[in-house]
Every structure is written in structure tokens, then in C-alpha cells.
């Protein structure tokens, strides 16, 4: 049996051939209690840390994020999860992966119980094999080999299959759990075991004793003797549920044992509002009691006794008993290897059953509102969109006191002055979080610039072509769709991005940092107030639910573009989490300045000071200064070093620069570093070409500068540096949408597709083709057709540049 397990197709499981020394340490008497700190352990490809677990059972969890506190968990494995597609035999690789996840959670200090199907399928496989072997022997003796192909397998009775399969199924589980030094015990039950008070107490006592000894109970209905199910006889009351399948068994067991969480694994992603596979079917993220009327149930799964309706009824019964429930897919090869651990970590997997309805809409509903609102916004006249933006600009100044009061509350909480919320942010982040009268005035000016540029954006004709007589083609600018903008510690980002979304006719989902909650809330209300003057209030939504960024990045059917605004780590995390949704942004701002041998002494120090010291936390701040070798030990070089010392800039020496010095500053750990502070790397190069090569090797394609009086050298640098922004004798800090005259920006992109550099209004538009004809068909343009292609370029209407 062990050989079957080890060849089951689960790579981490097959590698589990080590001596285990933890067997005695896993008993309850040796386990560190929940209040203690546990060490990180990694016995598989799923790293885990044992966490403090303590919860008084009573009410179910209200939010997914609370599931990580679940101590006692029941995992129900449906027949479709445990069995192969041919329904004869077990899906060994999938089963091994599930055992691995259960073991990880068990070794974190949780109490795991399994309710498993599979005995019938496993028995069917064994009985088929025995019948085939028996038939082949008899027919070989009596009829000859020629009739072997005509053998028929008789219909196998389910109870007989269950009787033949139970022992083998349990032996398989024992072999698998043994690989993790975990003991498992089998319990077979029937409906009578719950309705007979003495048997019920015995069952309860047995399960508690097993859990006390750190043993995983594996529970199944005793299908060898269980009577036929009585339809519609269960779930008639809160305290009554018949055990007619493993769904009802799992629910009954979860409530009896006062478990915190019941995970029901099936062959569908969760609960849909209509049968999965139908055109309009949508996965329900959170299901509340009373929502049954909004769901249309289909047929049951390919195997097993219960369908989704039975699962929902059982889940609601367990929920009423104080147990949280999640229904999820345990068969999909891309998620089955971590579905259980993902659920316990609070990730957005499957359908979560909750008794607490949120006050506002779900993020899915917000996405739909942003989509429909954005489409309405795109149909407005340009003057109407500009009027909305002007009104928002006026509100920023008119409601200045209310905005600053909300921002003050955010700052107090961030600085730890609030006695309830004692959070602390680094000084650069506090500066980003802070709003002021001058900032609001600058925002209002930028918004009015956006309003002016929005007059000729959406619907602008980019190309016109006469395909044939009376057949004309146009390419026009249109909104991208729904944007998700995720930003940290920057409340001033909200009105900027809102104005750009309005000008470009895009729906917008905003996810701000918790540290700016109060500021973001009032700024979003002002944006919606401005949108209301033309009835498109819902086009911009602020996500206030407990949605994690990783979960938002999975909404590929609702979001068309993700724009992160924040740290390089945030951008990298979003780029990694986004599945099927393009991400516009840059993960690093490693900006270079090359000081040429023909640079002006008067210009260099001003440019270096402004690029590095004006706002060192900005993504367009200088991080590496490249100096031509001929400038070493010259007055110009001394002036640069003196200025940096006065500005208290910490210098890191590049390898070549360090080699020229007897006593050098600390040598840089990496030439590819974004400091985001008053720190600077200095390196020496021999030529403009070496400077370009260095930038291409260590830069991030953000912003790079040359300082020189030689126009030919400067043009060579401008043409050969492959970055989003390349400057001559100008500070790196000019790399900004407002300073470029774009009014504002949603971010700076270093990607090479669609938009690059500071992304303003134009970067939030795409195109569509409009073809106007008169009964034209392609066959008319064939070799023997009556029409010919003209493909004439037609004049494009002039843009309104006022």
C-alpha cells in the first residue's frame, strides 16, 4: 500500500522518504500550548508556523480573515474529490496533497478531523478486479481464450463495495499520515449513532479522546449497513439533521464537536447563483442565511449522494450551530495542493458562509457598479466630464477644513498619539500621508489642467480610412474599462486618479492604505459628490472591505488594468499576484545621473542636490551618481562631495570608485539599489558609453540624466539610453505628470507596452474601430467580385488644443 502512496503523483509526497524523529513529540502532552510561541517548521513544500490558537466556541466567524484563528477544523472530502474520473479507484495524488495540508495544520497545533468518501469507489475497484480475475479463470477453463473479450462486469451493489473498500481506504490514509508522524483512527457511523443518546455520548467521548491524543479522526458513514436515504426528511429544524450523506454527516459532526470551521471540498469552485457552466453563473463569495431564493441549483455531482443544494442546507445548519463553513474546489490541479491551507489563512477561496452581512456592497458589487458607472461616464459630453472635474477641484478648496481635520486624525494615529491605535510610520511615509492647504491648492490647479485636457480625449478620431466606396473605417480613442488603483500613504493620490478616470471615462476601484482611512473616506465622498451632478456617482468606488490586495488582483473579469502607487515591494507583490490582469507601473526607481568630463561646474551641484535631496523618498530621486574618471580630484568633484556632506547624504562607493581612494566610504553592497533616503551610490566610468552600459545593466529604466556642455555627447546619451525618461542638464525630479503638463499622473510606467513614463490622461485610453458601410460583404471583393479595395487615408478632424 505504501508503494501505491509514494507513486501517487504528488511530488512533495514522493520525496518524503526521510527518517522521522518527531513521533513521540506530537502527543498532546508534549505539544507546546496555544499561548506559547512555536518555532517555524517546514516538513513539506508548504511552509508553516505554529500560531497561538484560542477561541471560545459560540458564534461563527464573521469574516474570512478570522479563519486563521480556527483551532478545531473538520474537512469533508466529497466523492468527486477522493475518486478518479472513472469512479473506480482513488485519486491518489490528490489525496496525498490533502493529507499533506491536513498534516501541516495538525502540526500547527490545530485539531483536524476528516469526513471522507471513497470506500465505495475503492471497493468497486477491488471487486471489479476480483470478478475479472475469477471470470477469466472460469472462462479459460470452459470456453477457451476467444471469449475472454466478451466478459461483462455485473452491476456492483454499493453496500458490498463499501464493505470491500473500507479497510483498504483506511490503510491508505494510515500510510499517508505516517509519513508526517501523525496517527489516524477510523470511525464509522450511522444515523442511529446521533439519535441514540447513549451512542451519541459514546461517539462524542471517543472523538474528544482521539483529539486529546493528537490523533486525526477519519469519519465516514458505514455504507455497508446504512439504510437508504429518505429524501426531504432532514434539515427541518435547527436541532434536527439526518445523516443521509457525508455532507449532513460533516455538518452534524462539526456542530456536535463544537468545531470552529467546516471545509467542504467538492468538484466545483464553490456556490454559484445558477448552475456552474451556464452563461450567467457567478461564483458567490459570501453566502448569508436567507439568500437561498437567489440561487438556482443544478444536478448533483457525478458521484456521491449529495448535490450542491444538500451542501448548502448542511452548511447553513452548521452555521446556525456556531461553525463557520467554506465550500471550495478540491479537484482543480492548480489549487488542490493548497486549497485547505489557503482557506485557513483567510484567502478568498470558494464560498464563505457568514451570518454577518456587511453594511456596504461587496467588492464584486462595487466592481459591477464601477463598470456600469464608467460606461455611463464615457457617454457624457466632454464638457460634462470637465464640469465634474472642475466641481471636484472647487470642493477640495471649499471643504479644506474638513479634509485637513480628517487628515489630522490619520496623522495622530500614525504617529502613535491615539491611545487605541498605536501605529508608527517612518518619517518619509508620514510626509506622504500629510495634507496641507498648499497641497490642496496644488491639487486643485492640477485637476483644472486635467479638465482642460479632457475636452478632446474620449471619442477622438485617430485614423480614417476609405476601405471602398461608401465603406469608411475609423479608429477612435475609448476608455480602457475599469481601473484598480492601489496606493499607500498618499491621500492626495485619490483626487488625482479620480480626475484622470473621469476625464478618460473609466470606472475606478480605489484601495488605499489603512493609515489614510479618514482622509480617503472624505476625499472619496467629495469625488462622488462631484460625479452626482451628472448622475454617475457610482463610477468611482472606494474598497473599504477586508479584501486583501492579493484577492483584488484575482478579479480578472471585473478589472481591466491595475495601477499600484506605493513602495517597490508593493508593486512587486501586485505584479506577482495579478492573474490575467495587466499591471502598469514600476517596481524600482533606480535613477542615474552621469556627470560628463565637459560638465559645467555651476550646474552639477545644483542638479545633484535637487535630484537627491529635494525629496529622497520619491521614485524619481537620484540613487546612483556616475562621474567621469577625469573629474576625480578636481574642484568640481570636491564641490559635489562637500555639498553632499552638508546635506548629510550617506555615500556608498562603487567598486571602481573605491579602488581610487585610500580611505573610501562603505563599499556598496549592490549597484542595483533604490535607497529612498539620503543615501547615494557614487561610481566612476571612463566614457559616456560606459555610463550607458552601466545604466542598462543596473538601472530600472525609470529616469536617467546626463550633465554636459557637449551637445553631441548629450544627444548620443539621449538616443542610446533605453529608459522611460532621459534628460540633459535637468533634475531627475522633473519625471512627473504634473511637471510634464499632464495635470496629474496615475503613476510612472517602465513597461514597454501601451504607456511609458509618467502616465496621464492619454495612457488611460485604448482604441476601437468603427466601420460604416452600406450592405458590404467580403465576397464582393473576391477575384471575380464587383468591388476593389481602395484603402485611402482620409483627413482626421483637428484636435481642440485650446
TrEMBL record:
It is found in: Mitochondrion matrix. One of its GO terms (biological process) is L-proline biosynthetic process. SUPFAM superfamilies: ALDH-like (SSF53720), Carbamate kinase-like (SSF53633). It catalyses: L-glutamate 5-semialdehyde + phosphate + NADP(+) = L-glutamyl 5-phosphate + NADPH + H(+); L-glutamate + ATP = L-glutamyl 5-phosphate + ADP. Pathway: Amino-acid biosynthesis; L-proline biosynthesis; L-glutamate 5-semialdehyde from L-glutamate: step 2/2; Amino-acid biosynthesis; L-proline biosynthesis; L-glutamate 5-semialdehyde from L-glutamate: step 1/2. Residues 363-632 form the Aldehyde dehydrogenase domain. InterPro entries: AceGlu_kinase-like_sf (IPR036393), Ald_DH/histidinol_DH (IPR016161), Ald_DH_C (IPR016163), Ald_DH_N (IPR016162), Aldehyde_DH_dom (IPR015590), Asp/Glu/Uridylate_kinase (IPR001048), G-glutamylP_reductase_CS (IPR020593), G5K_ProBA (IPR041744). GO terms for cellular component: mitochondrial matrix. Its EC number is 2.7.2.11, 1.2.1.41. The keyword DNA repair does not apply. It comes from the Eukaryota. Residues 71-329 form the Aspartate/glutamate/uridylate kinase domain. GO terms for molecular function: ATP binding; glutamate 5-kinase activity; glutamate-5-semialdehyde dehydrogenase activity. Keywords: Amino-acid biosynthesis, ATP-binding, Kinase, Mitochondrion, Multifunctional enzyme, NADP, Nucleotide-binding, Oxidoreductase, Proline biosynthesis, Transferase. Its main location: mitochondrion. Can form homodimers/multimers. NCBIfam families: P5CS, PRK00197.1, proA. In the C-terminal section; belongs to the gamma-glutamyl phosphate reductase family. In the N-terminal section; belongs to the glutamate 5-kinase family. Bifunctional enzyme that converts glutamate to glutamate 5-semialdehyde, an intermediate in the biosynthesis of proline, ornithine and arginine. HAMAP family: ProA, ProB. This is Delta-1-pyrroline-5-carboxylate synthase. It comes from Callorhinus ursinus (Northern fur seal). The lineage of its organism: Eukaryota, Metazoa, Chordata, Craniata, Vertebrata. The gene is ALDH18A1.
Amino acid at each position: 500500500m505504501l508503494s501505491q502512496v509514494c507513486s501517487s503523483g504528488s511530488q512533495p509526497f514522493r520525496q518524503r522518504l526521510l527518517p522521522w524523529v518527531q513521533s513521540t513529540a506530537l502527543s498532546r502532552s508534549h505539544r507546546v500550548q496555544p499561548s506559547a510561541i512555536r518555532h517555524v517548521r517546514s516538513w513539506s513544500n508548504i511552509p508553516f508556523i505554529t500560531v497561538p490558537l484560542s477561541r471560545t466556541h459560540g458564534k461563527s466567524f464573521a469574516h474570512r480573515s478570522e479563519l486563521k484563528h480556527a483551532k478545531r477544523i473538520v474537512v469533508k472530502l466529497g466523492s468527486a474529490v477522493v475518486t478518479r474520473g472513472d469512479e473506480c479507484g482513488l485519486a491518489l495524488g490528490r489525496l496525498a496533497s490533502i493529507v499533506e495540508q491536513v498534516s501541516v495544520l495538525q502540526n500547527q497545533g490545530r485539531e483536524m478531523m476528516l469526513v471522507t468518501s471513497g470506500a465505495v469507489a475503492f471497493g468497486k475497484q477491488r471487486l471489479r478486479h476480483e470478478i475479472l480475475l475469477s471470470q477469466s479463470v472460469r472462462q479459460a477453463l470452459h470456453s477457451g481464450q476467444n471469449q475472454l473479450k466478451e466478459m461483462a462486469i455485473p452491476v456492483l451493489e454499493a453496500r458490498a463495495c463499501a464493505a470491500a473498500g473500507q479497510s483498504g481506504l483506511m490503510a491508505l490514509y494510515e500510510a499517508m499520515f505516517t509519513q508526517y508522524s501523525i496517527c489516524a483512527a477510523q470511525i464509522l457511523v450511522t444515523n442511529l449513532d446521533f439519535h441514540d443518546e447513549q451512542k451519541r455520548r459514546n461517539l462524542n467521548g471517543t472523538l474528544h479522546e482521539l483529539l486529546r491524543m493528537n490523533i486525526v479522526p477519519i469519519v465516514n458513514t458505514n455504507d455497508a449497513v446504512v439504510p437508504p436515504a429518505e429524501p426531504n426528511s432532514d434539515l427541518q429544524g435547527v436541532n434536527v439533521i439526518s445523516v443521509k450523506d457525508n455532507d449532513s454527516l460533516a455538518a452534524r459532526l462539526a456542530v456536535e464537536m463544537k468545531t470552529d470551521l467546516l471545509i467542504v471540498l467538492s468538484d466545483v469552485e464553490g456556490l454559484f447563483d445558477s448552475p456552474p457552466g451556464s452563461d450567467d453563473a457567478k461564483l458567490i463569495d459570501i453566502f448569508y442565511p436567507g439568500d437561498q431564493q437567489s440561487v438556482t441549483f443544478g444536478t448533483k455531482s457525478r458521484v456521491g449522494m449529495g448535490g450542491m443544494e444538500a451542501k448548502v442546507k448542511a452548511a447553513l445548519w452548521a452555521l446556525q450551530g456556531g461553525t463557520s463553513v467554506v465550500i471550495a474546489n478540491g479537484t482543480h490541479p492548480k489549487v488542490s495542493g493548497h486549497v485547505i491551507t489557503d482557506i485557513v489563512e483567510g484567502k478568498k477561496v470558494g464560498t464563505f458562509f457568514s451570518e454577518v452581512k456587511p453594511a456596504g456592497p461587496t467588492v464584486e458589487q462595487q466592481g459591477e457598479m464601477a463598470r456600469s458607472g464608467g460606461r455611463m461616464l464615457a457617454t457624457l459630453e466632454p464638457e460634462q466630464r470637465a464640469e465634474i472635474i472642475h466641481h471636484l477641484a472647487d470642493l477640495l478648496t471649499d471643504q479644506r477644513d474638513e479634509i485637513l481635520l480628517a487628515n489630522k486624525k490619520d496623522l495622530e494615529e500614525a504617529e502613535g498619539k491615539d491611545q487605541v491605535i498605536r501605529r508608527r510610520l517612518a518619517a518619509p511615509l508620514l510626509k506622504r500621508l500629510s495634507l496641507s492647504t498648499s497641497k490642496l491648492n496644488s491639487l486643485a490647479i492640477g485637476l483644472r489642467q486635467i479638465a482642460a485636457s479632457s475636452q478632446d480625449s474620449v471619442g477622438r478620431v485617430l485614423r480614417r480610412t476609405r476601405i471602398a466606396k461608401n465603406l469608411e473605417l475609423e479608429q477612435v480613442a475609448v476608455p480602457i474599462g475599469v481601473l484598480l488603483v492601489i496606493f499607500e500613504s498618499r491621500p492626495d493620490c485619490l483626487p488625482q486618479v479620480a480626475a484622470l478616470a473621469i476625464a478618460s471615462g473609466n470606472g475606478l476601484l480605489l484601495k488605499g492604505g489603512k493609515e489614510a482611512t479618514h482622509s480617503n473616506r472624505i476625499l472619496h465622498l467629495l469625488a462622488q459628490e462631484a460625479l452626482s451632478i451628472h448622475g454617475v456617482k457610482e463610477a468611482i468606488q472606494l474598497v473599504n472591505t477586508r479584501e486583501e490586495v492579493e484577492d483584488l488582483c484575482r478579479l480578472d473579469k471585473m478589472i481591466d488594468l491595475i495601477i499600484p502607487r506605493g513602495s517597490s515591494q508593493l508593486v512587486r507583490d501586485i505584479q506577482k499576484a495579478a492573474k490575467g490582469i495587466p499591471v502598469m507601473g514600476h517596481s524600482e526607481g533606480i535613477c542615474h545621473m552621469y556627470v560628463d568630463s565637459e560638465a559645467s561646474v555651476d550646474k552639477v551641484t545644483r542638479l545633484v542636490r535637487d535630484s537627491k535631496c529635494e525629496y529622497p523618498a520619491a521614485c524619481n530621486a537620484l540613487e546612483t551618481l556616475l562621474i567621469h574618471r577625469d573629474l576625480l580630484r578636481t574642484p568640481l568633484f570636491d564641490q559635489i562631495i562637500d555639498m553632499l556632506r552638508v546635506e548629510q547624504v550617506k555615500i556608498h562607493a562603487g567598486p571602481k570608485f573605491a579602488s581610487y581612494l585610500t580611505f573610501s566610504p562603505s563599499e556598496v553592497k549592490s549597484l542595483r539599489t533604490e535607497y529612498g533616503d539620503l543615501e547615494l551610490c557614487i561610481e566612476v566610468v571612463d566614457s559616456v558609453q560606459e555610463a550607458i552600459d552601466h545604466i542598462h545593466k543596473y538601472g530600472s529604466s525609470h529616469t536617467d540624466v546626463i550633465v554636459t556642455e557637449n551637445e553631441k555627447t548629450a544627444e548620443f546619451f539621449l538616443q542610446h539610453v533605453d529608459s522611460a525618461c532621459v534628460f540633459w542638464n535637468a533634475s531627475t525630479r522633473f519625471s512627473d505628470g504634473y511637471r510634464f503638463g499632464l495635470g496629474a499622473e496615475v503613476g510612472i510606467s517602465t513597461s514597454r507596452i501601451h504607456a511609458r513614463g509618467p502616465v496621464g490622461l492619454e495612457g488611460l485610453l485604448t482604441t476601437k474601430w468603427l466601420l460604416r458601410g452600406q450592405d458590404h460583404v467580403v465576397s464582393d471583393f473576391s477575384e471575380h467580385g464587383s468591388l476593389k479595395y481602395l484603402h485611402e487615408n482620409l483627413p482626421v478632424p483637428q484636435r481642440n488644443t485650446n
